[in-house]
Amino acid sequence: xxxxxxxxxxxxxxxxxxxxxxxxxxxxxxxxxxxxxxxxxxxxxxxxxxxxxxxxxxxxxxxxxxxxxxxxxxxxxxxxxxxxxxxxxxxxxxxxxxxxxxxxxxxxxxxxxxxxxxxxxxxxxxxxxxxxxxxxxxxxxxxxxxxxxxxxxxxxxxxxxxxxxxxxxxxxxxxxxxxxxxxxxxxxxxxxxxxxxxxxxxxxxxxxxxxxxxxxxxxxxxxxxxxxxxxxxxxxxxxxxxxxxxxxxxxxxxxxxxxxxxxxxxxxxxxxxxxxxxxxxxxxxxxxxxxxxxxxxxxxxxxxxxxxxxxxxxxxxxxxxxxxxxxxxxxxxxxxxxxxxxxxxxxxxxxxxxxxxxxxxxxxxxxxxxxxxxxxxxxxxxxxxxxxxxxxxxxxxxxxxxxxxxxxxxxxxxxxxxxxxxxxxxxxxxxxxxxxxxxxxxxxxxxxxxxxxxxxxxxxxxxxxxxxxxxxxxxxxxxxxxxxxxxxxxxxxxxxxxxxxxxx
Length: 504
Prior knowledge:
GMP Synthetase, Chain A, domain 3; single chain; 7-stranded mixed beta sheet
């Protein structure tokens, strides 16, 4: 499916840039198709066959999409490895994928301690299109013709592993076709200019590449994402669509001279991959001067829930929107029964876009699917009478204070509105009387000028029940993040516990 789209996109868009590197040179749609053909033929010469795994341990370089499309044309499966993972974490992911071949830049090469690789090839970042994978390509050749098979796996997309060992969600042509249909329909053209905000191994790039190719969009790549560099790219290259996780948008808004940049080019802001507070959505809409939409899904679901740019502003501020076309949303109790209207339940999604299963993990696959095919996301939420989904946090993040359930995300959304709070996360701490209490970990807007705990409690009291209010506070310069740019709650809990242990 991906190879077919790349060929047709090359025919339609030709010399138009598909990707632009941080070195400034473009990879055209014609380049992407030609180079991926030659790379697929070269990989076949090296013995790679349909069903083999090609691991990509690469930053945001044009080598990544060329290799992804080449593997699709060959019938191989791409395992994208997030370059922000530690060497130990990358090794665990590669052990799970069992690649036939691994492509990695020099700084990300596996150390060879037990990873089951038949071959590892160092990728030297190209300085022009014809240098991309020059050592591996077969110039002028094309790969063998594949029989159509929408169930043939195309990609392994790894979960964050924040609650245990990562798992690899398997995506085939069927899922990518469904996601493309939901995102762009059957249209060609109309794409804008955007920035790749996350690692290319992330769900967004891996599943949405066919749709991006259909629209003829131009994507700018950053080997290492930095807020100030991203903001400069938006202004200098007149990018029209700004996408990223809420953390990235928040960091861009915190760039000291933000208001000096000419951002009139931005026509839309899309946030996904994590929860956005109402305060952040409002600030992004106001300061970028563009409508904001939010998206919600999971690595296993491919696509799920979202708001439209034409929805009332409060939809994106207070909710993650409604189920997208073709997606079914269910809120279930621990026994997989629907909860009462307005009650909190586990968010479950079903659609043609959900993964085929976990790679080589039938037990994990069986555990994540309900009997009727819904995927358990691990998130908690409730649905209002307008069909909008309100998230309440992860099932493992909820804590119990004096017999009452507390959902950190609900508390964080209120505390984030405080004028002296730049970012906040709420984590539980053991308490001999209440069982658990909430600790607000705060990043102040001005260093060393954060609010006092009593101020936070007084600010939130009109909107939260007393048992939900934080009873302790820690001030930090920045919230720790995982490799997926999400708040690392395990690190926060450990830090709070360490602070508790050090108290007299």
